[in-house]
Design goal:
The protein is α+β, with helices and mostly antiparallel strands. It folds into 2 domains: 13-78, SH3 type barrels (Roll); 98-371, Penicillin V Acylase, Chain A, CATH 3.60.60. The chain is 16% helix and 33% strand. The protein is built from 6 helices and 19 strands. The protein has a 6-stranded mixed β-sheet with strand order 15-6-7-16-17-19. Strands 4-3-2-1-5 form a 5-stranded antiparallel β-sheet, with no helix packed on it. A hairpin with a 4-residue loop joins strand 12 and strand 13 (233-239). Helix 3 (188-196) runs antiparallel to helix 4 (201-210). The radius of gyration is 21 Å and the shape is globular.
Amino acid sequence: MKKKILKLESNLLGVSEPYEFQVGDFVKNINTTCTHYKSTGEVVFVHQGGDITYKVNNQGATYTPGDQLTKSADQLIKVFTHTAIPAYEQITKSVNECVVAKINIEGKTILAKNRDRGYKAKIEVIHELINDVEVVYIHDKLTDWSEGLNEYGIGIINASLAVDFDEKEGDLAKQNLDKGKAPKVSHDGLKIRTALSKEKLSEAVQSVISFIGEDEKDVGVKGQTIIANTKFAFVIEMTSKHLPVVDKIKSNEIVVRTNHGVEYPNTGYTKGIKRQSSISRMDIAKQKLSQVKSPDEVLDALSKQYTKNPFMNPYRRKNKFNMETTSQVMYNLDDLEFHLRHDIDHSEFDKYDNRLPKGYKAKIKVFIGKTD
């Protein structure tokens, strides 16, 4: 079982080389055919041939805390936690309930997203220079979530694999306000803005994977991130307990991600109606995008109702789970266009905030509309 960590560009060192385990790392056995599957522990010895010996810190049918197991490196992943992972409990992180997609139309690379929230999102569009790079991004004023594109045609969209948190995000932000604290609960907003300040796609990918930001224990942008420029596109899947898997997307390939893990199937929604919704939204979006003939049709295709149950639809209107689509974004990376449509019932659009220096000629065009 080899990790699909691909070589993107020669200077993308953190992705182009497989991770080398070190003494002190905490690891998890991900080989489903191994008798010690799901065992976790601390690396105590790295053998010359590449095998890893780790001291187990959780309980399973074939292992117990204190056991020392030796495995080949491709059976293990590093986990970003010192807490033992329960062997019999499926770990489900909260997922960012969204539909994200990459498609090429008329020779143009398009990224698009339906953003679903469990609260009425107050959003704005910010147009500014970050480290002298022109960027445009949607900004959630309550949580600090951000995503967008830059003047070099690099765009980023993300669907989280932390669903429980995603469903409670608005409440947590409001609780912070009530306590007199800043409402911000998303560290990934800063991480994505930082990645957008890069001139090269390789640098932006490296930033998405490794940037720490405000919390030294919170490395990289979690969830499923699609990042692209006019020539290359990648989908990155990682969580707080899983190393990043980077897959290159073919130029003519339509890729859609929602709220269940693809490389890590035990992440995101794993069962029940919410997993059914995640699969339904992904399948419908991919099918409808395959019929789109021009970039102008993309957001329309993602906003129509195709199912009787709104919860199963890519654009989710009122439903019993109170998780509705609050906005849509689309980036045309070739023509440097940023499109936002905010839902008039489930979001509040504050403003377009142009922070560019006086006299600066913008390279990115911004289009703002609404849906209902």
